[in-house]
Amino acid sequence: MAEVVRAIKIECIRNTIGGEAELVFRPRNVRPVRVSPAFLEANKVSDGCWWVVDSEGGVRVEPPVAWEDNGTGLLEFGPKLRGGEKERMLQWFTFDHLPVALQPTSRAFSVLASEIVATIVPGPERTVALRKLLESKDACVRAKLTAGG
User: Fold this and answer.
1) Which long-range contacts (CB under 8 A, 24 or more apart) does 57-63 make?
2) Which of 46, 62, 68, 106 could make a disulfide contact with 50, Cβ separation 3.0–4.6 Å?
3) Is the CA virtual torsion 10, 12, 13, 14 positive or negative?
4) What is the pLDDT of residues 32-44, one digit of tens each?
5) pLDDT tens digit sequence for 19-68
6) What is the DSSP string of the chain?
7) What is the pTM of this model?
8) Phi and psi dihedrals of 63, rounded to 5?
């Protein structure tokens, strides 16, 4: 059986043009997902449910009482460092503190950093990849701040 890698809190469900629904997640760095009305009904999706991703890429929805998240809306079960610590480099990929105009630029790097942590085994090369991605993110944010970047 596949292991749970990530559980993301569904903040709300929005209707879209064309009859699909869009699931909006509590952590704003997670892009909304479009699903069919049939998916909503079959999975009993409602505000507060969890969007659960497993190690084989499968997705399911679980009820609001499935996990406690301390208000973050995101639970990561992916690769950990020695002693059960989370990847420390991810703290540098947050973007909520940035002005709204800069958040989309930084968000893209945050998503990629999370994917790297979830799919690459911890080690020196993963750390180098994250460090170089951080340098790229910082350069892109600075470029957005200055005309002619």
Assistant:
1) 58/2, 61/10, 62/7
2) 62
3) negative
4) 888 888 888 888 8
5) 889 999 887 778 888 888 888 888 889 888 888 877 677 788 888 776 66
6) -PPEEEEEEEEEEEE-TTS-EEEEESSTTSPPEEE-HHHHHHHT--TT-EEEEETTS-EEEE-GGG---TT-SEEE-S---GGGPPPGGGGGG--TTS-TTTHHHHHHHHHHHHHHHHHS-SSHHHHHHHHHHHHHHHHHHHHHHSTT-
7) 0.49
8) -65, 160
